Amino acid sequence: MTATLLIRTGRLRRARRRMAVIGGALILLLAGFALTLMQGQSFVPPGDVLRVLAGHDVPGASFTVGQLRLPRAALSVLAGLSFGLGGAAFQIMLRNPLASPDIIGISRGASAAAVFGIVVLGIDGPMLSVLAVLAALGVAVMIHGLSHRGGVSGTRLILVGIGVSAMLESFIAYTLSRAPSWDLIEAMRWLTGSVNGAQLSLALPLLVSLAVFGGLLVSRARDLESLRLGDDTAAALGTNVARTRLLVIVAAVGLIAVATAVTGPVAFVAFLAGPIAARILGPNGSVLIPAGLVGALLVLAGDYVGQFLLPTRFPVGVVTGALGAPYLIYLIVRVNRAGGSL
Amino acid sequence: MTADPAISGPARQPGGVRGLWLVAWLAVLGVLCALSVAIGTRAVGLEDIAAALRGQVDSIGQAAVAARIPRTVLAALAGAALGVAGTVMQGVTRNPLADPGILGVNLGASLAVAVGVAWFGIASAQAYIWVAVLGAGATAVFVYAIGSLGRGGPTPLKLALAGMATSVAFVSLVTAVMLSRGDIAGGLHAWQIGGVGGATFARMAHVLPFLTAGFALCLISARKLNLLALGDDLAAGLGERVAVARGLASLGAILLCGATTAVCGPIAFVGLMVPHLGRLLVGVDHRWLLPFSALGGACLLIVSDIAGRLIARPSELDVGIVTAFVGAPFFIWIVRRARVRDL
After folding, report:
1. Rg (CA), chain B
2. What is the pTM assigned to this prediction?
3. How far is A47 from chain B (nearest CA, A)?
4. Which residues of chain A have a CB within 8 Å of the CB of B163?
5. Domain presence at residue A6
6. Looking at beta carbons, which residues of chain B come within 8 Å of A317?
7. Number of domains in chain A
8. How many degrees, rounded to 5, is the angle at CA A153 between CA A152 and CA A158?
9. HSE-up of residue B151 (Cα within 13 Å, Cβ side)
10. Which of A90, A110, A71, A102 lies closest to A320, judged by CA?
11. Is A137 inside a domain boundary?
């Protein structure tokens, strides 16, 4: 009897801990969202912000809050959620924190497609998102195929991904240099990611993709967690491994690609969100939703820091890139110390 | 420990065959130089080319050809430097994926120059090179230190990842430095993608001493690199001071890629491809491999430059983009070829 009691209290404790983490992250995210709406170059009191959000016309605040800050903050949160969810899904599925879409080249694929679509084909909106998703899926299939040689080894997958990234990066640079007007700020979006010039209409594809792909991922969270234990164990636990893997790949690539088509490949958010969330959450259930929230916080905070806290205005990708690279190095060093094999 | 299987080629070849290869490659280099002067965005007649080679710059065609001459020389020099630097790095790290671009060394030089220009107001070409060499050296030591921590030493994956992380951070930092100085941001492009356009003999003269010193150091180290390939213990047993040999050869490679980056910007993958092709032709003896890497690198960069001029007519493609397009598939091919436990 005591055994079941122990298990039950353990479950309860873990569920409580999980809810506390998710609740805390949500509160932090809301506070950050509110803060970015109120404080920018100038301060807008909370009352005015609420009235703008309710649709009233407030002189001096309607434009700054409604046209500049709200779209920016909304896109940051939505894109961050997508990056966090998609990145964590890949890391869990491939059982390797280094196998995140921005390291193995999938984000670069979406970015290259977006640049090609805008510069060469002259399309935007939903069509661009579709193109980015298709291209990212194509890159995912290509990387998988290239690293397949009597079974896919994680090491080879990552190295092949690095090679594919390098090629896509120079394709992006080439296409950008052919653009009619070489605009540094616009170019920065596709090289490092940025939410400059955000429009609320761009939030729609993000919302749709979060609802469809994000919903699919979260509904598969339990199967995904069982993949962590290895394919055989997962199958023994009743998970249809092949189907889960396919669904997860499509959903995660979809999330990453749509977000990349809007904001560009915001450097390292997909890579950072999962491990940070896992560290905070501990072994208390699926890391997916916390990772999404951490991703949103990262983009929101990175954009705020890039805009207001540094001597010059930087796009968010520069901030997260400078933040993420030391973490990647730390990861390499730590794994080496532990004597594990990378 | 034996040499890495991925970097083994024909074990021994008679000197005559290698001599023939040397002559053949010299001829190829000559032909490519001629092509590089003759072919370009603008079609120029034979008389104009001949006139320009005699120093006349009366027509637009002659001026175009006159601009192509220093460009060809720079491409040859930079290619040779990167090829030799790549070979030495692969020898020193005993790692088939080592390359000044992949290890982030070229971007380190790039960042150092960007910081120097933006914050310390360096302007002379001489200062550029010193700063670039210092940046390249610091980055090489940093990346190698991270990649070789822990058991197993510097495996290809750890080195490649350490290089990639460093590159991403440096690209972010170069961007940050440039964005904070709007007046020099136009040069941002040049510090992220390498090219040989706009070369002049005056600028090349500044790097020549550095390149000469680098080439000399690398060639002197050829025999030491052969010993290092046998493994540290065996090399020490044969009377080689391993640390000194490593340091000397690395210094040469760093001088070469720092100086090259100071003139051309970061160019990746040349140093990766050339040694592998060279080993297929002449085997693993560095005394032959290094000269071949120089020749091969020069040929490769000239071909890439010509291709860049032809593909994107009427504009041009920076040579750094072309080498990435050729080099990345090559990188993947090496990764695929190696067995999992070697990675």
Report:
1. 20
2. 0.82
3. 35
4. none
5. no
6. 172
7. 1
8. 105
9. 7
10. A102
11. yes
Chain B residues lying within 8 Å of A191, measured CB to CB: 171, 175, 192
Task: Supply the CATH number for residue A320's domain.
Answer: 1.10.3470.10
Q: Is A194 helix (H, G, I), strand (E, B) or coil?
A: coil
The encoded tokens of residue B150 equal 């822990």
Digit-coded pLDDT (tens) for A223-242: 888 888 877 888 888 888 88
Reported as a single tens digit per residue, the pLDDT across B43-69 is 777 777 777 777 777 777 777 888 888
CB-based contact A88:A287 (threshold 8 Å): yes
Helices and strands in chain A: count of H runs, count of E runs = 15, 0
For A187, the closest chain B residue by CA position comes to B189
Across the interface, whether the CB atoms of A191 and B324 are under 8 A apart is answered no
Residue A307 to chain B, least CA–CA distance (Å): 12
DSSP designation for A307: I
* Per-domain residue ranges of chain B: 5-342
Q: Which phi and psi angles does A170 have, rounded to 5°?
A: -75, -25
Task: Specify the pLDDT at position A295.
Answer: 94
Write out chain B residues lying below 8 Å of A272, CB-based: none
Minimum Cα–Cα distance from B318: chain A residue:
A174
Q: Is A189 a domain residue?
A: yes
Print the domain residue range for A84.
14-337
Give the architecture (CATH level 2) of B5-342: Orthogonal Bundle (1.10)
Is A7 inside a domain boundary?
no
